[in-house]
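Researcher: Here's my situation. A collaborator sent me these components and asked whether they could plausibly form a single complex. I don't have experimental data yet, so a predicted model of the whole assembly would be a useful starting point for our discussion.
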Amino acid sequence: MRYLTKRGGLFLVTLWAALTVNFVIPRVMPGNEATAVLSTFRGVNPAALHALEIEFGVNVHQGLISSYFQYVGNTLTGQFGVDAQGVSVLSEITSKLPWTLGLVGVTTVIAFLIGTLVGVLSAWRRGGRLDAILPPSLFIVSSVPVFFVGLLLIYVFAVKLNWLPLGSNYSLGATPTFSLSFIGDVLDHALLPGLSLTAVTAGLWVYSMRNNMITTLAEDYVRMGRAKGLSDRRVMFDYAARNAILPNLTGFAMQLGYVLGGAIVIEYLFSYPGLGYLFYTATTDHDLPLMQGLFLFYTAAVLVCVLIADLLTAVLDPRTRDA
Amino acid sequence: MAPGTLPSNPALPVPVLDVEKIRPGRRFMRAVLGNRKATVGALILLLIGFIAALPGLIAPDNPQAIIYAPNAGPSSAHLLGTTAIGQDVFSQLIWSTRQTLVVTLLVTTIATFISMIVGLTAAYLGGITDRVVTVVTDVFLIIPVLPLLILLAAYLQPGETSLIIVLCITSWAFQARQLRSQALSIRNRDFLVAARARGERAIYIILVEIVPTMTSLLAASFLALAVYVVGFAASLQFLGLGNSSELMWGTMLYNAQQGAALEAGNPWWALAPGAAVALLGAGFALLNYAFDEIGNPALRPVRKRRRTMGKMGARRWRRRGRVAA
């Protein structure tokens, strides 16, 4: 229980910190970036503009503290403001979200499975051929910048071989329906960006999994399982891996921020119209409200995942309950 | 480890003198040369350092001059072709090395220093300071780095200085946490208790007594951080948050992407700086990987450990015993 209150407290503090960062940055950064940006916001309805002025500290005729509370109140009630076109930031985000959710969600799960499995197997046959080759190579690949992997894949599979599309989420002119051909088209377009993300993230968990597994394999209950004459597979997965994976869950969720960052770069590289591409276009348009909304959204997404991982750990691992 | 090699009385002065005889520089050299991954990593970094120091020796062409035919393929005159506006890609690549390396090393050094101060102060002072610092560190660990970097960079003039500032602000947290937990483990050792009893100030104890015991961890966190800094700096510039007229690999990538280098049949314009960034990151990563193996025997490949337990290995174990005293 103490574990959960502690993690829950961290959740709230981080959320508050991200909110406050958004409020503080426009006020402490040198120059008048926010004023310049907001002056381009013509044709936005006055109430929305006023809310933005409070967030960014432009033309505000009230105290700092009351602006702060008004801003926090607005954000917590889901009013993230409007972007340069006067469209609500929240609806911009939700319209692009499915593409990123699909791309990042699927690749993260695949990468986690690959990383965990390689970690388990290489610890099981520690010093074997698999242990000598796979973990180091996954680790090296994971330290390669994601855009380089993406560039290479585009060059080989899209430009040279012409097997897969250069970018975008589905072919120009295709109408989104639930037909087999459209789903195939979407998968075709997602393959290269997904592959790039999987390649650089699979290595993130290999070492922590391998090290946990090595420690777990020395436990008495594993020896007991072996002594009972259980099959290798049973001992490896049901006795050792199951326990070794527990400390890794929260680490997995924490890495999500890193994966989301990689997704921004990859979506830009492939012109894949998800949240990352939206972030990129917001950057080039200097659309500060949209950028800050996205930053908040990314932080919240990571936080929710960390919280889920913590809950899961608390349920699965009795050791955390006493601690 | 044979139990007999451990001096039973920790107060014995002799072993301490022995340790000082082995200069840390030579120990580092031996560690690097004895590990193949470390050797490769060190060679990569040496090569990049050489290019950064003397770019004119390798590529005499002016990297910024717009004097060639645009989008030319690789030839003997232009090893990697030319850009869409007619600059030589090879000399851009070579001349970009210096600034890329300088930014990486500068950010990594500053961020390592910040994490050292933050982590060690928190661990040493303990109590409420430690609690607050730990929460702040955890917050920085959870907040996604790249979105925060982009947000901060958007408010600043694009360029080298902004890049260094935003990277320093965002990249110290993980290392601070590691250093903190390491420092916690030695907090109540005798030499620190003695220093406190002498009435030394906290800042003296942290910098003069604690930091020297952590040189290997500091080196390891420097290397791990460098890998991230290389990648994040290039990513930021690639997304257009750098100054595209500066000579760095990340801005080359941005210009190449804007010039649609891959589609225009001019792949090396994009692939070469990408590979250079990857190579620099790999150099640091290999060295760091080897450092982990050297510092943590549990991670060492099993076969290798058996082999090194010959004469050399035995000597090393004995020295470990002395260091532990």
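Model: Some features of this prediction you could bring to your collaborator: The first helix of chain B runs from residue 14 to 21. Chain B is about 70% helix and 0% strand.
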